């Protein structure tokens, strides 16, 4: 069985990358897939917060029960950890089973220094392929259908590791000129990345996010994105919804809401349609 991999990335914060990864992950489990989410977006642990797991992670950190963690898989000591406790236990300690379905490898404060540590690795291939090596050796054989990685909102050694490791990139964008420019820049960056390192990673999904369908301007920008990215645009834009924000603040996705608003219900349906399309696109590449 081939484990499909994708990462959310745009060299800009605040576009909804973490929210999108959380909801796509839950949507994929709703569709019957086994999913692993990995939070590399920063030590603040927003993906864990979104899935209601961050308080337990913080408690483990406070009690020195946070070893190994996501930052250690990039370290030269990872193989020593595996030799000491065994592969099964080492990987099991990384993974949290969330209540909404996907498994999660949460963020960790060790991510704060990871970019600089990777920068000390002289060989570029070795520097950027560490996540891919970890996933290939320790995750691909664990029965996951899809692995989704939440990357930092900037281009650095950590995000390059994510791009190296995945089959496709998910780019959540809001409907505006700056986001259009950023998406164009990302397409160029991916082409440069492919040419420089001979690593095939595609723009799998441009995901229109926080879409206010009541405004003519948003609809015009959506049409522009559809024209520019006919093969990558998501089949359904994600509507703006206060319920999604409220759910995130309470450690949930919109899928966990017992009485979702109309916009939240539409968002859930959109994420399900987009998750199904994402699997099809990643499967074509695989």
Automatic annotation (TrEMBL):
AAA domain span: 11-197
One Pfam family it belongs to: AAA_31
Signal sequence residues: none
Transmembrane segments: none
InterPro entries given in the database record: AAA_dom (IPR025669), DNA_Partitioning_ATPase (IPR050678), P-loop_NTPase (IPR027417)
Name of protein: ParA family protein
Organism of provenance: Halosegnis longus
């Amino acid at each position: 069985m081939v484990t499909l991999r994708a990462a959310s990335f745009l060299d800009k914060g605040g576009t909804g990358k973490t929210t999108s990864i959380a909801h796509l992950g839950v949507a994929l489990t709703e569709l019957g897939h086994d999913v692993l989410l990995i939070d590399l977006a920063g030590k603040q642990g927003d993906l864990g917060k979104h899935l209601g797991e961050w308080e337990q992670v913080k408690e483990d950190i406070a009690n020195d029960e946070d070893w190994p963690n996501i930052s250690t898989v990039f370290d030269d000591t990872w193989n020593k950890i595996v030799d000491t406790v065994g592969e099964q236990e080492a990987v099991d300690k990384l993974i949290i089973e969330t209540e909404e379905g996907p498994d999660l490898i949460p963020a960790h404060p060790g991510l704060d220094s990871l970019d600089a540590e990777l920068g000390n690795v002289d060989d570029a291939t070795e520097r950027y392929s560490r996540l891919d090596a970890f996933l290939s050796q320790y995750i691909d054989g664990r029965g996951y259908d899809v692995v989704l990685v939440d990357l930092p909102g900037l281009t650095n050694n950590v995000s390059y590791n994510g791009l190296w490791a995945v089959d496709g990139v998910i780019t959540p964008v809001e409907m505006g000129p700056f986001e259009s420019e950023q998406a164009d820049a990302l397409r160029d960056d991916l082409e440069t990345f492919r040419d420089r390192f001979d690593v095939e990673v595609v723009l799998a999904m441009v995901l229109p996010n926080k879409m206010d369908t009541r405004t003519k301007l948003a609809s015009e920008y959506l049409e522009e994105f559809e024209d520019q990215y006919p093969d990558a645009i998501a089949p359904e834009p994600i509507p703006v919804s206060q319920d999604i924000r409220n759910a995130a603040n309470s450690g949930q996705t919109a899928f966990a809401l017992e009485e979702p608003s109309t916009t939240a219900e539409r968002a859930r349906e959109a994420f399900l349609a987009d998750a199904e399309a994402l699997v099809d696109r990643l499967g074509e590449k695989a």
